[in-house]
Fold each of these.
Amino acid sequence: MEPIKTRCLIIGSGPAGFTAAIYSSRANLGPLLYEGHQPGGQLTTTTEVENFPGYPAGVTGPNMMEDMRAQAKRFGADIRTGVITEIDLDSRPFHAKASDGAEIIADTVIISTGASARYLGLPDEKKYQGLGVSACATCDGFFYRKRRVAVVGGGDTACEEALYLSNIASNVFLIVRKDHLRASKVMQQRVLSNPNITVLFNTNTAGLYGEEYLEGAHLVEHKGTPEERSYDLPIDGFFLAIGHRPNTDIFKGKITTDEAGYIVTALPSTATNIPGVFAAGDVADPHYRQAITAAGSGCRAALDVERFLMEGAV
Ligand code: NDP
């Protein structure tokens, strides 16, 4: 098979990747986009999206991603199913291999492989995904108006999610495995003084239950000690907030990341430490993690690529 030559290889198909594809194809760069393990990205695991401007009646995550994909295709983006399995970023043009057997030679690369929420690893989490289990309170919290919810985790994200939900849900339980919160002092104070949030310290989740939808969690307090106690907590929503993991495995050692593995960019640009390689969306953003911010950075990455190519760097 002849190698495919492209001005711009986009890796990943969330809002960042598709927006980069829309902009770069309209700029006549003929981008080649590989969709990755989860075509459409994290949004395909959510139900209704109500906070993306332009959809006054809301839209489902999968439909929104189909729309973005169709919009990118309309301008000629070459969108392929599969993953990039290997990439050499040592010299330009960059060489990559894809799971469909294609070899790619790319003048520039936009990495938009996203991040994945960490889960506890309970089989029940998959069973109730979208039926009570979520890893994004800002996305799904609204559906739990006046209902009982739990958030798992003791860091800043968990506290932020618990506080957000405390304005929506009737009761919020924060399930913390240790006897203290890891979050910053100010967040701890806000959580501990909120009458709508009950913090369950020294507590682990052993499983979830419910007929069709989630109805509760099996909890264990003081696990492995003489005071160990198991009980069921009736809840309608179970929110994971135990951190995210950027999807940067194939770039390990090849590109500068922070300690947690997020790609470092030279803000406000999307340039990485490798000239010609740009990063957009959650893979380079541990802070905001919203569809709209990812789409915005996908736009910036495409404009950065265009400028890079115009400056005659390749
Ligand atoms: P963190 O890594 O800070 O916290 C993860 C939390 O999840 C910890 O409390 C940890 O418990 C708990 N946890 C991990 N694994 C499990 C498990 N298997 N079972 C139960 N609990 C578990 O992640 P965050 O996403 O909270 O924050 C990431 C970074 O982003 C941090 O630097 C944070 O400060 C920052 N951030 C800042 C915000 C702000 O300033 N407004 C908002 C959100 C994030 P344990 O403590 O026992 O290890």
Amino acid sequence: MAEPRDIVTSDRIEKVVVVGGGTAGWMAAAALSRFFADGKRTITLIESSEIGTIGVGEATIPPIRNFNGMLDIPENEFLRETRATFKLGIEFVDWGRVGDRYIHPFGNLGRDFHGISFHQLFLREVFRGAADPSSFADYSMSAVAAGLKRFGRPSADARSPVSEINYAFHFDATLYADYLRRLAERQGTVRREGKIVQVRRHGETGDVASVALEDGVVIEGDLFIDCSGFRGLLIEQELETGYEDWSHWLPMDRAIAVPTQNVASPDPFTRATAHSAGWQWRIPLQHRTGNGHVFSSRYMDEDEARSILLDNLEGKPLAEPRTLRFTTGMRKKAWSHNVVSLGLSSGFIEPLESTSIHLVQNGIARLFALFPDKPISPAERDEYNRGMRDVYEDVRDFVILHYKATQRDDSAFWRDVRAMDVPDSLARKMELWRLHGRVFRENAELFALPSWVAVMLGQNMRPEAYDAIADTLDEAKVRTAMEQMREGYRATAERLPTQEDFLRRAGAWYQDQPDTPSVRFGSFS
Ligand code: FAD
């Protein structure tokens, strides 16, 4: 066994350098400076306004509230400053079959009875012809509120259906990065404007020692956080870590994005509408709507993709459509030498389930859990890489499910994705569902049981049988309880304010002067 080592100041990482000032860079700088800009350590962020940021990434998933909470960000202020709206889930249109519509809501899907999964009791009703499979969303407080365009923060009273609401945000990515920048700078992050033109390495270890800017300034670091976007300036261009390409499962490689004017009060959900070689997002913010067509260039050219997007907009475009290119996959090692990649430099999975910003947050949390000393321990680095791989693969499998579980055969794209082989980890999940509608959340898997159930049912994957354990409960009693549950969700949702009213009353509507104190994260009143 190794001798315990005395930690002396010189063993500590002192200089952390964040390369890039997009959403990932400022999330990292805000989080790191919250804890580490303590006079003993410095956090420097380098960004180049000439290169700019990707400027998309507007929909999130609920754990973003934990990230903001960690930074002590007042939620109403954040909503106002980033022109944000609430997101209760994603509405999928035309995915299982053309004409289908379902929601993947956040939060619970019904309540379990005596430890038996609600969805098994629901499946029993479906098998007996007493429920339509598509009616599962009636048992989700978030879905019912979303359907009525209403919103309420989760109540602390566990007996209230409102306690079952779970939510995330839609926000303006540029404004979020600006907001985090102000916070990070207040906490001591030093921002350096400039383009990195050279990277210097330690001769012996191969670690990155410093980066040089165009104006000749050299910035040294002990730990580098590569948030330089798709180019992966340090992790790939310098360290040549390698990329695992997943486009054989997820062939989408382009997106055309365009913001439009709002035509109505914003909905508290994202919409994802399938097209013949991809899908279109609609993300309603307070001041505009974000839209984009994600497609595979193997099946559709850019002109056709652009005209499909423009033909399916609700409001007037506010800018010229912009094309973005990507390859789905992940860096073989998210952390190599003394470089931790976060955001697009570490990998990318198309935005169908709005997971990229979460992957940044997840990487930051893991980095905190494994924050190194000098020299960096390979065991801690390997642990980080193992954990990041797990979460990337979780997201990958869940996103692939949306394509594999289609009945569409109206284009070569849909015929191919429906026939493709899927990763073994997903094939196993699909088989367990096919047999008895069983789903298990493995380890710290990102998407919980209700998410899998919603997408599987939403895309018409009917299991061959339900779990026999459901038959141990009295059918009439369960039916009555389910009816009461459904009615409770509906009646509760009808009493909630519309999302716009809620935002206005909270002082979170950007056009209004704040007239009520900001609610802090964690205060769910
Ligand atoms: P970028 O925004 O590209 O920032 C890179 C930074 O590095 C910039 O500041 C740049 O100036 C700097 N830089 C690069 N090279 C140098 C250099 N040589 N010198 C100095 N600075 C340099 N995520 C979600 O969570 N939800 C979504 O709905 C969503 N939608 C998306 C839709 C599309 C089409 C795409 C492509 C992505 C989407 N994402 C989404 C992902 C999201 O946009 C990114 O995860 C997020 O913006 C983080 O980007 P980034 O900071 O890693 O990179």
Amino acid sequence: MILFFKIFDYICSVEYKSIIKMKAKEVIDDLRRRFPNEPEYLQAVEEVLMSIEDVYNEHPEFERYNLIERLCMPDRIFSFRVSWVDDKGRVQNNMGYRIQHNNAIGPYKGGIRFHSSVNQSILKFLAFEQTFKNSLTTLPMGGGKGGSDFSPKGKSDMEVMRFCQAFVAELWRHIGPDTDVPAGDIGVGGREVGYMYGMYKKMAREFTGTFTGKGLEFGGSLVRPEATGYGNVYFLLNMLATRGIDIKGKKVAISGSGNVATYTAKKLLSLGAKVITMSDSNGTIYVPEGLTEEQLDFIFELKNIYRGRIREFAEKYGCEYVEGGRPWGYPCDIAMPSATQNELDGDDARTLLANGCFAVSEGANMPSTPDAVHEFVNARILYAPGKAANAGGVSVSGLEMAQNSQKLSWTAEEVDAKLQRIMADIHTQCQKYGKEADGYTNYVKGANIAGFMKVAKAMMAQGIL
Ligand code: NDP
């Protein structure tokens, strides 16, 4: 009788092992039921789960510890009201958030976004993506993201300062150099990081590397402002090399005209490529012969000093400007979306492909819709998702943290060399996990699996938390 039960137990355990598989679709359906109003978050989760499902199921221990659900849901979310006084003496109220997604491989790390569209869904998608991106960088950083529905556009310097101070008056207790290290993102550049860091320093009474993207005078790293754009171009060069393509003379369509877009353009110009478009949330400029360095300097000043609109470039240089237009309808060899999420849809992708575009490297986070990604991968073009291609920014943030801890600063050449090596490493990881039977490198799959495996192994080793 005892023997019978032992055999029965054994059969059950074998059967149990063989059926405990993660079914990506079921997990996503469940998250959809629990978070019905978070489309961006669900979109990001779906993309990752669909590409890691097979690898995940090679490790039944992951499912026994319900690792996938723990990895999809943030460790914690802080949300708070931010009250501040505008120049007319009126009290303004915004919402502030910090999502601490996962710290299995290092302190939470990820930017702060100030934009009127910010909500919990957008920040949850960004924090989720950041976890995998940071894992790819080879540096010890977990994933987080934060922000507010405050828009710096049209605000005076003093208003921006007062808002940043009010934001950090609440946030400061949740962050720290070994806990959670914020940085910039849309609407948050050197000015905003400076104000936030100043307030943090005052509240915490410490001078540590709690923010990255700081000014050079107070602990910032050389090459941090350039890092996301330059890193994206380095990643692109690695991809082009796999097909023996030279960047020189290639026509590149860029969207956006902020930090990522302008430094992407700068590096491209230095390599002899032609930047034929740039944009902002109002419209797109088209320069068929390619921007000159002087014209790019003008855009940089226009956006960072005068905080003007891209339309003013067209007025000065007499080029084509389309109000409300996007760059993807112009013939180009390479597209580098560098503005915001879901800015390139399936129709845009089909137009790009019909016009001969053979490479897309994403500076922004999730700029291509799932339909667009499907088109690129199906067409077997070189397609790099943001979590791989734009990881240069957070990588140099990681190097800024390392310099702050050592109380040292490295030269621009040292930082740039490390950035190039990290982007090449990320490319290698994508190739390792993303090679398909026909020899095509699926960079989406490669980046997701490589990023996932490191975090998953760390979570398993640390137990159920
Ligand atoms: P900036 O605020 O410096 O620039 C954003 C640019 O995108 C601006 O030209 C802005 O136009 C445009 N833009 C913003 N929202 C929209 C919209 N809804 N539609 C059309 N255009 C829009 O931000 P960054 O350059 O820092 O960030 C750009 C992207 O890169 C984001 O997706 C960000 O998450 C990602 N990223 C940034 C990193 C960094 O280091 N900064 C690192 C990794 C990724 P306007 O001026 O009119 O608002």
